[in-house]
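Box 3.1 A note on notation
Throughout this textbook, protein chains are presented in two layers. The first layer is the amino acid sequence; the second is a token string describing backbone geometry. Keep the layers aligned when reading.
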Amino acid sequence: MKMKSGVEQAICILAMLATQEDQKPLKSFVLSQRLQVSDSYLKKMVRKLVVAGLVESSASKEGGFSLAKPSSKMTMLDIFEAIEGKESAIHSSHLAEHVFFTNDSVIKKENEVLNIFYDAERLFKEKLNHFSLDDVLTSHDYEKKSFDWESIAREVN
């Protein structure tokens, strides 16, 4: 299974929003600058997070992007599916049927193999569903901190 780099970027975007001082909305240029991606690309990424219900967008002078729900309620599965989609990554062309002329024992084996892949995908998603964004941002020896990402962006320039 190949995961798009967008999943990692989405986790970083959400982590920045979760750690933004006073939960103030962040402008897209601050996020894109920090992630070192174009502003137009970042807006496409954040749009997926908005559609998934993870991020809110407000268009005003003080607006920008903010979390749509607490980071403790946002799972790694939510983030993964926002970028990768909810469809299964397992797709069969049923090549064995073509190659072996509908031989029942081969088709049964093909179904067994497909079920192994479906089970693995289910376990993968179950594991992702057990970890929240907060779990990534905190641990027993690390407390979630807050940052003023806008002032950090100004300092970098």
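The chain has a mean pLDDT of 90. The helical segments are 5-19, 28-35, 39-51, 76-84, 95-100, 104-129, 133-137, 149-156.
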